[in-house]
Amino acid sequence: xxxxxxxxxxxxxxxxxxxxxxxxxxxxxxxxxxxxxxxxxxxxxxxxxxxxxxxxxxxxxxxxxxxxxxxxxxxxxxxxxxxxxxxxxxxxxxxxxxxxxxxxxxxxxxxxxxxxxxxxxxxxxxxxx
Length: 129
What we know:
Layout: H1 4-10, H2 13-33, H3 35-54, H4 58-88, H5 94-127
Helix pairs in contact: 3-4, 3-5, 4-5
């Protein structure tokens, strides 16, 4: 059973700040080690720049931010799964392959949907130019 001091320690400001520090480190690490995530961040910057250029609506910006967050989050999860599988086994195993392929597939589905959403948002602006 956890004591009251243990509970206070896990909910202290220092513990919360430490959690944010680790999470921020995870974001930076995913960017530094991930080739694909750099592509996603670059695409996100281009898309957001286009949003500013075309002066899209607030709702359209919200949709873009949610879509971008989804793709980048899934890419980070994919990276974590790939690294974990690599840590567990260096041998070929069908379940390791499945885990990696399914995680990569989730990113692909998300990126395809993001592209479709981007098209729906931007094509009217582009065609009216």
